[in-house]
Each structure stands twice: as structure tokens, then as C-alpha cells.
Amino acid sequence: MSATTPSMPAADTSTVGAATGRLRMVNLLLELRAFIALIVLIIVFSLLSDAYLTYDNLVTMTRHVAINALLAIGMLMVILTGGIDLSVGSIVGLAGIVAGVLLEGLTVGNTTLFPPVWAVVVIVLAVGAGVGAVNGTIVTRFGVAPFIATLGMLYVARGVALLISNGETYPNLAGSPELGNTGFDWLGSGEILTIPTSIWVMVLFAAVAIFLTKRAPFGRWVYAIGGNERAAELAGVQVNKVKRRVYMISGVCAAMAGLIIASELTSAAPQAGETFELNAIAAVVIGGASLSGGRGTVRGALIGAFVIGFLADGLVICGVSTFWQIVIKGAVIVLAVILDQSQQRIQRRGAAVAAAAQVADSAPAKA
């Protein structure tokens, strides 16, 4: 009597294949959830208000989105490594205050200096990078959890902004032609080819971030650290250096957002940017990034920022109460996390079904 090996019936094999196909379809829908949500928002608010889908309103909404998008890009880089940056909102306020000090004149001894606008932008971005470097150093050198380290820096940066300004607002940042520091308002209110400058800045930062994550070795290191930090370290990745750099990138993005806000308002307030870190985190999560690190894209973060921005502006246009806006935004964030967890469960089930199908295909036929 010859030995026989049991094999999976053909009907079972086809069932596994059908299940795999369904799981792939559901997973695809979940991956596109942010884009689908954005399309649904546009359709719904267009039906509720004739003013929503006009060119002028779309440009205005995109200008608002640019702020959250810049913050989301920086936040994404940090989250991809498994970290978090709660200080970005405070960096926004600090950046505006530093710009206000420089544009209204920096007194050194008996001399008052009025740097040109380009120098102001460079110095403010350097300040943002410096705060990010402090965050990264606290996390890497002293082993402090990112949540605690950046929470502390949230208060420190806000406190420094209040100390510099004495709690007051710099009301006029237009500059003076005689002093050679005019043109700051162009950053927030100017246009290039009829498109607001802030939108071009968003596109530029997004392009650089896409290059870093898709084409540069730095992006591979970031994903590797978020996926398995110990394995990345054993593979030769300088984990601490990469982490410090992602926090610096986050600081630069936040500083640029602060510059745009101060430029658009032609004034700087130390309270600017409060709770902006929540919008940034929400945009990244809605865009499909995992808070545990290793998964997420710049495209997803941008779409998430558009969802947050278009939702908020649509609620305003429709006359929804500010209190209800907060409730709805919070519900959207919770829903995004729930969908993310569902996607991960479906991916695990899909992997299990695929493994079962592979075993069935490789099993020898019954003798």
C-alpha cells in the first residue's frame, strides 16, 4: 500500500482565492479612505452651499490647508521613526515673534539692526531647526520619551515667545522702504502666477519631502527605524543622528508655517499656533500613517491636511457652531484611528489567507 498525502480540495482552494480577493479589495478601500473622504466632503458641501466649490473659495481653503500641510509634513517625518512632536504649535508662535523682533529692529548696544526679509526668513528657520535639534537631543542622548520631551518643549518654546514679547503682539510687520526690510507680507499674501505664495511653499516642501522619503537613502533609514529600530541599528543606520534630523525637519516646517501666518496677518502674537500640533497629528493619521512608525506617505499626509482644512472651512460656510466643529473634528480623528486599526487587522488576515493558499498550492496531489 502506497503512502498518501492529504491535499486541499479544489473547492477549498477556490474559496481561499475568493477570500483573498475580497480582503485585497477591502484593504484597497481602506488605503484610499482619506482620498474618498475628501471627495465625499467636496460633494456634500458643494450640495449644501453654492459658494463652496468656487475658484476663489478653493484657493482660500488651500491657503488655509498650506499651514496644516507644512506642519503635517514635518510631523510625518517624526512619526515615521515612531516618535511624536508636540512642540510644533509653540514653534509656530515663537517663529512669528522672532520675525517680529527682527523686522521691528534688533537693538545691539547703541545700534538698531534691521535685517532684510531674506535674512529674517533664514534666521527664523534656523531657530525652528534649533528647537528641533534640542528635541532630538533630549530624545536620543537622554533617552526621554518623545511625548514627554516635546511636551516639555511645547511649554519652553511658548514661554520663550512670551518672554521675548512680554506677552504682547507685534502689530506691524510691513517694514519700511528706508530700512530695506519691506516685502515680508508677500510670503503670506503675495502671488506667483496668480497662485498664493503659501501654496507654492507647500508644494516645494512637499516635493522635497517626497524626494527624501522615496529617492534618498535618508528616507529608507527613516522607514527602517520606524519598522524595527534595533534591526536598523544592526544594519549600520545611525539611528540617533537620523532621529535628530527628523525633529529638525519638523522644527523647520513649523517655523515656516509661523512665518506664513505672521506674514499673512502682518503681525505676530506669542499665542499663535496653539493646538496646531493636534491638527498636524490628525492630518498624518487620517492620511494613513501609523503612530507606531514605519508606515505612512507624504501624499497621505497632504490629503489628510486637505480633509481637515476642507472640513473646517465647509462647516464654517454652512454656519455650523464652533463647538460642533470641535466635536466633529474629534470624531473624524477617532474614526481615522479605528479605520487604521481595521486596515492592520485585514492585512494580517490577508497574510494568513495568502499563507494558507500557498500551502494548498504546494501540497502534493493525492497518490
Question: What proportion strand?
Answer: under 5%
Number of DSSP strand runs: 4
What string gives the helices and strands in order?
HHHHEEHHHEEHHHHHHH
Would you tell me which CATH topology applies?
A: ABC transporter involved in vitamin B12 uptake, BtuC
Count the domains: 1
Main β-sheet, in a few words? 2 strands, antiparallel
Overall helicity: over 70%
Uncertain regions spanning at least 5 consecutive residues = none
Mean pLDDT: 88
Distance between the termini: 11 Å
Report the top-level CATH class: Mainly Alpha
**What is the CA-based Rg, rounded?**
25 Å
| Biggest sheet: strand arrangement | 1-2
Helix and strand content put the structural class at: mainly alpha
Number of helices: 14
Give the name of the CATH architecture. Orthogonal Bundle
- Broad shape: globular
Based on the model shown, name its key terms.
367 residues, ABC transporter involved in vitamin B12 uptake, BtuC, two-stranded antiparallel ribbon, 14 helices, 72% helix, globular
Model description:
This protein is mostly helical and 367 residues long. The chain has one domain: Orthogonal Bundle (ABC transporter involved in vitamin B12 uptake, BtuC). The chain has 14 helices and 4 strands. It has helices at 10-31, 33-48, 55-80, 88-103, 117-141, 146-165, 185-189, 197-214, 217-227, 229-234, 239-265, 276-286, 298-317, 322-362, and strands spanning 106-108, 111-113, 191-192, 195-196. The strands form 2 sheets. Strands 1-2 form a two-stranded antiparallel sheet. A two-stranded antiparallel sheet has the order 3-4. A hairpin with a 2-residue loop joins strand 1 and strand 2. Helix 5 runs antiparallel to helix 6 (146-165) and helix 12 packs across helix 13 (298-317). The protein is globular and about 85 Å long. The termini are close together. The relative contact order is 0.19.
